[in-house]
Every structure is written in C-alpha cells, then in structure tokens.
Amino acid sequence: MLAFLAACNSDYTIRKKGYYQIDFPKHEYKLFDQPGYPYTFEYPVYARVVKDTSFFDGKPENDYWVNVDFPQFDGKIYMSYKEIGKNELTKLVNDAFQMTYKHTQKATEITDSAMLTPNGISGLFFHVGGNAATAKQFFVTDSVKHFLRGALYFDASPNEDSLGIVNQFLQEDMKHLINTLKWKGGTSSKPTVAAPKPQPTPVDPGVKH
Hints:
Elements: H1 2-8, E1 29-32, E2 39-44, E3 48-51, E4 66-70, E5 75-83, H2 89-101, E6 107-116, E7 122-130, E8 136-141, E9 146-154, H3 160-180, E10 182-183
Antiparallel strand pairs: 1-2, 2-10, 3-4, 4-5, 5-9, 6-7, 7-8, 8-9
C-alpha cells in the first residue's frame, strides 16, 4: 500500500507522440532498358524493378507490367502498361480517374497537374491528401500507342503523418522516372491528352502541384 501511494504521488511525464527517424539515401539513378519492353526509364539505385505477375487475382494484360520496389521503405510503384488500339484511349483515361477518385472516402483532397516532360510525353499527376492508400499517382501517354499508369503504395496502414516525409522523398523519384521515360517504336507524342473533364493548364516540364 505504501509503495502504491508513493507511485501515485510521483511525477508523471507525458510522452510525446513521434515516429522513427528515417535516414534517406542520396537520389541516384540507373537505366531500365529491357529487350522487348516498349519503354525505358531511370529508377533509383536503392530500388529494384520486378515484373508484376498478378492483377487482382488475375493475370496482367501483357508482359510489360512492373513494380518499382523500395525495400527500405516497404513501398512500391505499381506500373501498368496498356497499348492504345487494343484499348480505347478515352476508356484508359476514364479508368485512371476512377481508380484515383475511388480513394475519396479517405482523402481530404485530390489535385491533378498536367505534365509535359522533356521527352515530349504528356499526362497527369495526382496528389491524394489524407490517409488514402496511395498519395501519388500518374498516367502518361503518347495518345497514339502507349499508355502507362503508376501508383505509389506502402505495405503499411495509410497514415499521412508518418508516411508524409517518405511520400515526399519518393515523389522525387517518381518525378525523375516520369521525366526520363521514353517510348520505344518511334511514335510521336501529342501535347494533349483526352480526358473526361476539362484539361488543366499545361505546366513546365516536370511534376508540379
């Protein structure tokens, strides 16, 4: 009883909520250029490109779906490629919007920014605020043959506070991947993308929002 009373009268210090400190590596990149693939891009040296073999318990449409894995951060960029002609461009763009806006229940905001890369490839970049499963998404296309969609996910419960700094770090890698992306096959890019809503004003090369 004396020990209990002494414990009750002892000083109490509130422990502040915090997160583990993360040591980020230096942004350095190498080239992904595999035979047969319809695209090339640069990705971080601390990541690995792995062929995606499953899609919602089904098989990907073709052999060119890949994941850019970040083992250090338990995250990955899911990249799905589709060929225009076999797929209607308007439907591909509509699907990209729908897959982004399905996160509205958890999102505090969703913004999109038009892109035009140094290689003349156009598309949209999406920022999803709040505790959504993915905070960064994009799609790019030449409007003729190629369509590529990417989304950053983590193997953890969505938490904007704890994942925010990692999202910002990996956004730079997504930006670099997009800006270094090139199509194979000699198709020319068009400056606009068919979309189910009015186009934002094009921005300078790079990802901005």
